[in-house]
TrEMBL record:
Residues 36-170 form the ATPase dynein-related AAA domain. Keywords: ATP-binding, Nucleotide-binding. InterPro entries: ATPase_dyneun-rel_AAA (IPR011704), CbbQ/NirQ/NorQ/GpvN (IPR050764), CbbQ_C (IPR013615), P-loop_NTPase (IPR027417). Transmembrane segments: none annotated. Residues 183-266 form the CbbQ/NirQ/NorQ C-terminal domain. This is CbbQ/NirQ/NorQ/GpvN family protein. GO terms for molecular function: ATP binding; ATP hydrolysis activity.
Amino acid sequence: MIGSELDAFRVTREPYYQPVGDEVAVFEAAYAARLPVMLKGPTGCGKTRFVEHMAWRLGRPLVTIACHEDMSAADLAGRFLLEPGGTVWQDGPLTRAVRHGGICYLDEIVEARQDTTVVIHPLTDARRVLPLDRRNELVAAHPDFQLVISYNPGYQSAVKDLKESTKQRFLAIDFGYPAASVEAEIVAREAEIDHDLALRLVDVAARSRNLRGHGLAEGASTRMLIHAGRLAGGGVPLAAAIRSAIVLPITDDPDLREALQSAVSACLQ
C-alpha cells in the first residue's frame, strides 16, 4: 500500500509522452531492479514529462524536487522545527519518498551544491539507505523507492558539473530533440495547432539549433515551440509569437537575435 504521506503525489491522469527510442523499456527494467536513473539531455526536450509518464505507467507517486544553488541537505532530508510543544522533526521530500515508496525526481541536479548531492550516495548503491544524522537514524528505502535525476551536459563547467562519484552510480538515458516529424506531432498535440504550423515551428527550431556553439548555449527547445504554437493558436501573428516565445527568451545578444530573426523570416516565407 502507498502511504498516505504520498497520496498527493499520485499521477492520476496519463501525461502525454511520445517515445523516440527504447527509453520506456530501459526505465521499466531499471525500476524493476530498483536501479537509480539519470536522464541526460538539453533543457525542454521532455525529460520531466518522461518521468511523469513513467510514474503514471508504473502506478507510483512522484516526488519532484527542483534543485537550486541554495538547496541544503536539510531541504532534501528534513529538519527539526520549533512548535509550541517543543521541537519536532519534519521529513524532507526525499525522506518521505524513501520511507513510503515513491519515485523521487531531482530535477536539474547540477544546479545543487555538490556537498548537498552527496546525501543521495547511500541510496544509489546496495545499501539503499538514507542517513539522517540529526536524528541519529538510518532510513532503509521502501522496496518501491526509486531515485531519478536529470542532468544537462550542456551546462558542464568547472563549477557546474556532477562528480564522477555521483555519475557512475546511475544508469543513464540520453535525451535529445526527436526527429522533425515526431517533434511536429508533439508540438501540434500539446499546442493544439495543425500539423503544418507545427512543422514550420520545428523548422525554426532546427535553424536555431544550428547556432549552438556559435554564440547560443542552447537552441530552441520543444517547450519553446509549444509556447509559440499556443500563442499563434490564440490569435497572435506567427512572427510575433515566435519572437516572444523563442527569439527574445533565448538570447540577449543583439547580433544573435538578428541572426535568429533572419532565420525565422526565411522559414515564414
